[in-house]
Specification:
By secondary structure, this protein is α+β, with helices and mostly antiparallel strands. It has three domains: about 5-60, Winged helix-like DNA-binding domain superfamily/Winged helix DNA-binding domain (Arc Repressor Mutant, subunit A, Orthogonal Bundle), CATH 1.10.10; about 65-270, Bira Bifunctional Protein, Domain 2 (BirA Bifunctional Protein, domain 2, 2-Layer Sandwich); about 280-325, SH3 type barrels, CATH 2.30.30. The chain has nine helices and 14 strands. A seven-stranded mixed sheet has the order 3-4-5-9-8-7-6, sandwiched between helices. The longest helix is centred in the last third of the chain and has 22 residues, at about 240-265. The protein starts with a helix and ends with a strand.
Length: about 325
């Protein structure tokens, strides 16, 4: 555990801690404490208040992710599917971590969370903004005897699992945007990144990544290139425990990954339609330099987007959907 992370753990309660007490606890000098706090401000963009005679404190209390609390909140069924769960203070990417583990033969049920990602990734190589302690960054490794092509609807099943997890935490008005965005009032709250490796006929290894905004400042979100929202801005969202939410997500996602092998996406089509924010609306599908317009007709059992245009309905397996201007 780095000294800076130890300092954050001391300050996470939002109370003042004197430089002398921090130095004594960490076994460093008061000057060393000040140096590390300066690094927290600059590197992690954390607001640390310093008041003469009182010490240091974070601008707001911070609930750090703790494996013990997450594991304690998991029901028996989830624990039976889980192989290992770890939380990193900082990591390049939770998905990249588990892709390496997968290549080394790690089994299904590996879960990786992080307080911060230095190279977080979204779909199509986009950056996923990943400041310290502000969101949920979660990845799960799962193995299938299936061929990669048979997993095309898995990200949609995972999207539903995220919606159900949020609903269990009292968040209403959550919807889905094909193929793997979770929105609230038209703004992105969470996204999924599914990375599949395997033989053409199977087996396959999947790393499913979820990024969910719990609290973002305007400064932290400057690099986001689309409308966004965080849980702290949604009614009842601010009081949700990050550890309990992480446990709910792990539970629901492990179940979705496990069930998909037996049943695929077909049993979930009606649920997906109910949460599909663009169903029945005029949309544009962007596929590189090509744009296709039509009416969003739902999804099929493979997870493909159905567009009605030119008197027929066609299925599309890739692209970015946007509402067509009126």
């Amino acid at each position: 555990m780095t000294v800076r992370y130890q300092i954050i753990r001391h300050l996470a309660d939002g109370r003042f801690h004197s430089g002398e007490a921090l130095a004594r606890s960490l076994g460093i000098s008061r000057a060393g404490v000040w140096k590390h706090l300066k690094g927290l401000r600059e590197l992690l963009e954390m607001d640390v208040h310093a008041v003469s005679g009182r010490g240091y404190r974070l601008a707001r209390p911070l609930e750090l992710l703790e494996p013990e609390k997450i594991l304690a909140a998991l029901p028996p069924a989830a624990r039976s599917r889980l192989d290992a769960l770890e939380v990193h203070a900082s990591i390049e990417s939770t998905n990249a971590c588990l892709l390496e583990r997968s290549a080394a033969g790690a089994p299904s049920g590996q879960v990786c969370l992080a307080e911060r990602q230095t190279a977080g990734r979204g779909r199509r190589g986009r950056q996923w903004v990943s400041p310290f302690g502000s969101n949920i960054y979660l990845s799960i490794l799962w193995r299938y005897p299936l061929a990669p092509v048979e997993l095309s609807g898995l990200s949609l099943a995972a999207g539903l699992a995220v919606v159900h997890a949020l609903a269990c935490q009292g968040i209403e008005g959550i919807g889905l945007k094909w193929p793997n965005d979770i929105l609230w009032q038209g703004r992105k709250l969470a996204g999924l990144l599914l990375e599949v490796r395997g033989e053409s006929e199977g087996p396959s290894q999947v790393v499913l990544g979820v990024g969910l905004n719990t609290r973002l400042s305007r400064r932290q979100a400057e690099a986001i290139d689309q409308p966004w929202v965080d849980l702290a801005s949604i009614p009842r969202g601010e009081k949700i425990s990050r550890n309990r939410l992480a446990a709910e997500l792990v539970d629901r996602l492990l179940e979705a990954l496990d069930e998909f092998e037996r049943h695929g996406l077909s049993p979930l089509l009606e649920q997906w339609r109910r949460h599909d924010l663009y169903h029945g609306k005029a949309v544009r599908l962007h596929m590189g330099n090509r744009i296709v317009e039509g009416v969003h007709y739902g999804i099929d059992e493979t997870g493909a987007l159905l567009l009605a245009n030119g008197g027929g309905v066609r299925a599309y397996h890739a692209g970015e959907v946007s509402l067509r201007p009126g």
